[in-house]
Design brief:
The protein is an all-alpha fold and about 130 residues long. It contains six helices and no strands. It has one domain: Globin-like. It is about 65% helix and about 0% strand. Helix 2 crosses helix 3, helix 2 crosses helix 5 and helix 5 packs antiparallel against helix 6. The termini are far apart. Keywords: Heme, Iron, Metal-binding, Transport. One of its GO terms (molecular function) is heme binding. This is Globin. InterPro entries: Globin-like_sf (IPR009050), Globin/Proto (IPR012292), Hemoglobin_trunc (IPR001486).
Length: about 130
C-alpha cells in the first residue's frame, strides 16, 4: 500500500515566491489609483509587507517560529471598503500570481484569496 504524502501549498510555492508575490502585489496596489489611498497612511511599508507575507505563508500552510497575530477582518472593517475596491484588489492579486507562478499554483492561491475576499466583503461591507 502506498502512503499518500501531502505537500502544503506553501511548500510547493516556496517562501521566496510568497515574498516576491507579496512585494509585486503591493507595488501594483501602491500604483493603483483606486487602491493606493488605502495604503497611503502606512509609514513602514517594508514591515507591512513582511507581515502580509507572513500572513500568506501561514494561510498557505507554513509555520513561523513567532508569528505576529493579524486580525485581517478587524483591520479592514474601518477602511470603508466598497465592493468595487475588493473586486479591484482581487483582480490585481490574480494578475500578480498569474505573472509570478505556474498556472496550477496561481489558481490554488487565487482560490484562497477569493475566500478571504468573501470574508472581507461580509465583515467590511456587511
Amino acid at each position: 500500500m502506498n502512503k499518500r504524502v501531502l505537500r502544503p501549498l506553501c511548500d510547493r510555492i516556496g517562501r521566496e515566491s510568497v515574498d516576491r508575490v507579496t512585494a509585486r502585489f503591493y507595488d501594483r496596489l501602491r500604483a493603483d489609483a483606486q487602491l493606493a489611498p488605502f495604503f497611503a497612511h502606512i509609514e513602514d511599508f517594508p514591515a507591512h509587507e513582511r507581515l502580509i507575507a507572513d500572513f500568506w505563508w501561514i494561510a498557505l500552510g507554513g509555520k513561523l517560529s513567532d508569528p505576529a497575530p493579524v486580525d485581517m477582518l478587524g483591520l479592514h472593517r474601518p477602511m470603508k471598503l466598497r465592493q468595487s475596491d475588493l473586486d479591484r484588489w482581487l483582480a490585481l492579486f490574480g494578475e500578480t500570481v498569474d505573472a509570478e507562478l505556474e498556472p496550477e499554483l496561481a489558481a490554488q492561491w487565487k482560490t484562497m484569496a477569493q475566500g478571504i475576499g468573501a470574508r472581507l466583503r461580509q465583515a467590511a461591507i456587511g
